[in-house]
Amino acid sequence: MPSKTPHTNGTDPVGNGVNGAKDVEMNDDAPASLKGGKGKKAKEGDEEMTVVVPPSKGQKLAGLGKKDGEGDVAMDGEEAVEEDDGAVKVDPVTKAVADIKGSFPLLERAVMLFDARFSLRALRSISSIRKRLTPDILAQVITETYASKGPAAESLLYAIGRENATFAKPSSTEMEIDSEAKANKAGKKEPKEIIPEIEIFLGILIQIYYLDNKTNQKGADVSQYLAERIHTLNRRTLDSLSARVYFYYSLFSEQMAPLPPSPSSPVVSIRPALLSALRTAVLRKDVDTQSTIIVLLLRNYLSTSHISQADLLVSHTRLPDGASNNQVARYLYYLGRIRAIQLRYTEAHEHFTAATRKAPSSPSAAGFSQSATKLLLVVKLLMGDIPERATFRDQSMERALQPYLQLVQAVRVGLLGEFETTIKQYGETFRRDGTYTLILRLRQNVIRTGIRMMSLSYSRISLRDICIRLKLESEESAEYIVAKAIRDGVIEASLDREKGFMKSKEVGDVYATREPGEAFHDRIQACLALHDESVKAMRFPMNQHRLELKNAQEAREREREMAKEIQDGDLDEDDLGGEFEGM
């Protein structure tokens, strides 16, 4: 008779007494539900079924690293070592070599498809391996890339001081031939040819290594060799790489003693090479090298204060339409500096505004945005405008623009004493930024601003009070400054010389003037220019239009043939199957 007490969960073992580490054999005595599965009874002639219970996670971890009975060996290789927490250690040298070699397929694909985007992707990968470059790593990459010691390999090894590096022999598995028949047909396996793009890419890595370690003389020598090598190759797939070579070549010259603006600086001696490379790039229609060298020449002339030569270069050259956005931003920045020095503030303001808009938004390019913004603020003050307060509240520029905020406040109020105090306090900062000479021109603007503030505050004010407030020397100088401000249109007032006072006119509605319309027109022009540049920057598959024209022509020919057959009576509507319409 069954027990009426309910079953409760206890600590007693289950009926069969089996744990998770043993196999359970199901004999014929076992219940049919276990033998047959899914509630079906097992047949009499069926074999015995064994249920294998998998071991627990702790047993698996305990068994790792030991050789079992079937000959499985734990993974204890030399390249990767497994730690206790499961992480895998990778040799940093092997990882760096693999990362450098990973860019070679991109260069080969760029040559095969004649597409510079793959070369740019290879150049962008340099930032991830830049800090790990050493002569030993570069020598290992060179010896493993080149099969034998050729002229290119010797030059690269000599550049890093590893002339005696041994080349790795190819393994026997690489040289084996599957069968004798294949050997008779193919013969000996020729080594893979290394394209010149890989050689120049390795040369750029050597340039970067010397630049980071401040070995400027060796870097300049390597750059000169690479420039001559590129000139002899004359390959369009080297355009992106050659632009980067000349960029580092110019940086090495700027950092070598004597530094600019000394007339004996190496930046002066590099100008003939850059001009020759610019002429060659224009003849070869090398857009990347052409735009890069134009920017480098402008930077070179400005570093030694040769403004007339820089202006002459701008008047005789034109930045190519296909130049990258970064080169366009740099070109506008240097062009704005030239125009600001030439007192052409309106053009300088346009160039600096465009440069700040085109500046990259990445944190690594914050320095360029700060430099362009500083010059833009000074040019705005020279034009008589006051920059917006939101410019100084930007998180990435708040600290760098602190001296310029005090300068703007002094100019806005028109206090000449505070303006001179700010110049004395932050004079070194302004000299380092290259804005000191432009800021010195603001003294007259401070006086003009003070006069304009007084014309807005007072309907009538004597010249003596103007002289006291602006701290001028005499009333005659105050009279001259007020007269010039009235003539230039800074203020709308009249000067009474007999009674010695300035009378301001009533201020009208600013929206009744042309100023809002001009500001709106400038914004529309900027938006239209951005739209045009975006359209020009669009990429389309090569020769895709030819394929579409071919398909359209074939379709028209088929329609003509079918129409002719219908007219001849060879086809009717039933033969067409309802697909031919429109006749």
Automatic annotation (TrEMBL):
Keywords in alphabetical order: Proteasome
Domain spans labelled PCI: 329-509
Composition bias type Polar residues, residue spans: 1-11
Domain of life where this protein originates: Eukaryota
One GO term of the biological process aspect: ubiquitin-dependent protein catabolic process
GO cellular component, one term: proteasome regulatory particle, lid subcomplex
Feature: compositional bias, Acidic residues: 568-583
Gene Ontology molecular functions: enzyme regulator activity
Chain intervals with Basic and acidic residues compositional bias: 553-567
Pfam families: PCI, Rpn3_C, TPR_PSMD3_N
Spans annotated as Disordered: 1-71, 553-583
Keyword presence, Thylakoid: no
Similarity comment text for this entry: Belongs to the proteasome subunit S3 family.
Protein name: Putative 26S proteasome regulatory subunit rpn3
